[in-house]
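Sample entry (312 residues):
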Amino acid sequence: MAACTVKKDVLPCNVLITKERTCLKSGLQRFGLHLRNMRLIGGDTVITASLLPLLGFFLLHGLQAVPWLTVASLLLVGLLLNATIFGLNNVADAKIDARDPVKQTNRINPIALGQLTQREAMIPLLGCGLLALGYAAWLSILPWASLVLILGALYSLPPVRLKERVGVDLLAHSLLPLSILLMGMAAAQANHPLRAALGAAWIGLISAKSDTTNLIRDYESDCEHGIRTTAVRLGVRAVWWLRLGLLLAAVGVLLFAGWWGVFSLVPALLIAALVVLEILAIFRAGYYLPKQRLLFSLSYAAGGGVFVLLSG
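Predicted structure, serialized as tokens:
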């Protein structure tokens, strides 16, 4: 029979904490830390990024005779790949994040907080990565999934760390989501080159825009630790204008696609309206708040779903 701890001033029938329950709670907390490290909880980016393969698939395949088993497997591959990439980024950034008061407050990196060791974090990351490659092989998209993992590793891990190279940081950050989108397009096995090109161009622009926000947010920390990013090299003001240019270019791509009939005009205008709202939001100080960014991420995810439904 399991030993119990009973408070003296409480009747035995009220509170009993067994060793098994304590171990179970500790195990669940440990599991939660691994999920947090992979941004599966406490972060929106990994969820929205995991929808990119589905967006790529439906942009080319459409909604007719959808192979739902393939779609579900594609979603799982995207989720596992993104979880692995975000987890690797936390492993590589642990020492930097441990000295960053903002990220300590946000508690997005349990390794930096001393709640996980780098070795402990790597074990489930390797499992997720291998499982993603296995599913990708079954879907006949193994080369694309391998490209995603390689780009994710090169982006974060030393000695390469593309995220710390001026100019290349923006390019690499846009190529990573782009490769995830193309993975979904490859699974569709459909030939629509103009649709694929314009969809890829829009995702690349929005992904680069997202990185400008990260660069501006991390500017002071990067300067303090001698990390050479595009924001550190060019200054915050230049990166702010670059972000505005990327958003305007994204609107231009959507309007071009809708006007020339590559996509339906109405859904293209809908997404363009969301981008315009974000353009207006960047002039507000609250734009950098996590809740504001979460709102736009969810808006883009919902807009993407409506876009697919209306485009057929």
